[in-house]
């Protein structure tokens, strides 16, 4: 589409904008909206972006295509009255405890209420308060603060390809919730936190662990150690008015010392260690041609996604723990005894850009003598809250440096924070181990046609090559996995990050309306890599010393015990059976799985066919038909259980024969 549009008497050229809202913002007008997100499908629910077009009248800017010759007014007395009324209606049904709300100061509803000068609400609350869902380790869901913008629903479905949340009920009772009224902990939520970033209010927010950290800092019997992830240093400054991507490592370390942490370490050291272990594992598989492609395991949201949706791939995941869990394990298993301390005497805090790390830290396999290897995980946003609570003026802090030995890292560890960083670090190390020569510091990753958010690189060797792929967002990973399993693409190493552009776009990062925030953070991390004294893992003297002191060599039994882990298939939805045909005196019980995998393989058709067969045979009073979730055979569905007998791969065309044999004959 080409041409011009006149917006508030200013003429603008149409240059690929997909809706009028984008063009209006290009004109420098902050047109209000709740439900619009530049990465999501248009929804048009909130109507805050309504504008007046000369010929068309009132239109929603977010899902109206720009056309040549349009004349648009964004602000008139009538439009302002409409927006104020919309805000009043939203506020009428909203928990207005803004003074104690966790998102006060960052809430879009609060911001627009102040902007439009609303000081009176003419409408009464029409609904009862609903319980908050605090079951998840990663996030809190408060339906009383939801404005029904649908951003979380679309983000989970369109970006992550999961669809944990959706609209339920009708009319005034409509709400956003997980399937069948389940809690977030009972469904297939991976804890990535992208719904938090998309939410304009506090309906979805980070599950804070700040109080536990303060308690530990104030406990004289605890030595409190903190480690910070690479992506935090290029985002923390945004919380204090800094630019996205600006490196604030020195001020961050100084702030952590002021907060009272006894030792401040760098998770990049753990990333260096991960690169050594993962490279050793990869070369073993690569040389034998086994369990390829190897999938990275640094991202806990991806790992949980694989456990829910791709149990067939768990043997191909690297067994390496994520970097912060590696460092936590070392601190509890080796460092504490050397200091004359028990694991319980140490309190290890990880500052992460990621909300899924909170769940990861609670995995039972990540413990030492009953003590979690990482006791608390706080996000970048939570750290900023602690700094403010302490009254620290972040901008005026003098820079400080990490403690040794776990504060010294190579550039390879630093780049773990953005998409392609992990694979780059692994391949740098692999080339050095294979050739004994200095590896290239960067590799050329090119987009893969037809696969959004997927890149690939081919690294030539003296004999053969290493084919690498990187993918960010789980929706994109889902498509790549399907292509791999269909034989359409082939790689030796696949790096998966659940969040857009990697950890720099994590759910625990500062909220930003700058659509260039993630690219700027990535550039900041690339700059941090280039500024490092050493840029390859094998040049880190403290890594070499650590192996000599505690682990012997990469891949040793000691290293596997301390630095590696295992995985297991997970249910997608916990709980109930849902009656479909409820017999008065059931003598045959049939259960059909309607979980995602079975649904995609046709389980709803199976249910309909069974209903038809039951009614045709006039057995509605003798057969009990129920829908259920996850019969633990996700890769071989549709799955059906008839009187305790599990049947896999039940196609509709087989049902008549199965029904005759296992139901009709049993009831004869």
Characteristic key phrases:
16% strand, five-stranded mixed β-sheet, 4Fe4S_Fe-S-bd, 4 domains, Alpha-Beta Plaits, Rossmann fold, alpha/beta, 2 iron, 2 sulfur cluster binding, 668 residues, 25 strands, Ubiquitin-like (UB roll), metal-binding
Describe the secondary structure blueprint for this structure.
Elements: E1 4-7, E2 10-13, H1 20-26, E3 50-53, E4 57-60, E5 71-73, H2 77-92, H3 108-115, E6 139-141, H4 151-159, E7 165-168, E8 175-178, H5 194-198, E9 204-206, H6 210-217, E10 223-228, H7 249-259, E11 263-266, H8 267-288, E12 294-295, H9 300-309, H10 323-338, E13 346-352, H11 356-361, E14 367-368, E15 371-372, E16 376-379, H12 380-389, H13 411-414, H14 421-435, E17 446-447, E18 454-460, E19 465-472, H15 474-485, E20 493-497, H16 517-531, H17 541-551, H18 557-563, E21 578-581, E22 588-593, H19 596-600, H20 603-616, E23 623-628, E24 640-642, E25 645-647, H21 652-667
Give the name of the CATH architecture of the largest domain: 3-Layer(aba) Sandwich
Radius of gyration: 27 Å
| Strands side by side in the biggest sheet | 2-1-5-3-4
Q: How much is the average pLDDT?
A: 91
Structural class call reads: alpha/beta
Number of helices, counting only DSSP H or I runs of 4 residues or more: 21
Beta-strand percent range: 15-25%
User: How many beta-strand runs?
Assistant: 25
Poorly predicted parts: none
**What is the domain tally?**
4
According to CATH, what is the class of the largest domain?
Alpha Beta
Subcellular location: Membrane
GO biological process, one term: ATP synthesis coupled electron transport
Domain 4Fe-4S ferredoxin-type: 137-167, 180-209
Domain 2Fe-2S ferredoxin-type: 3-78
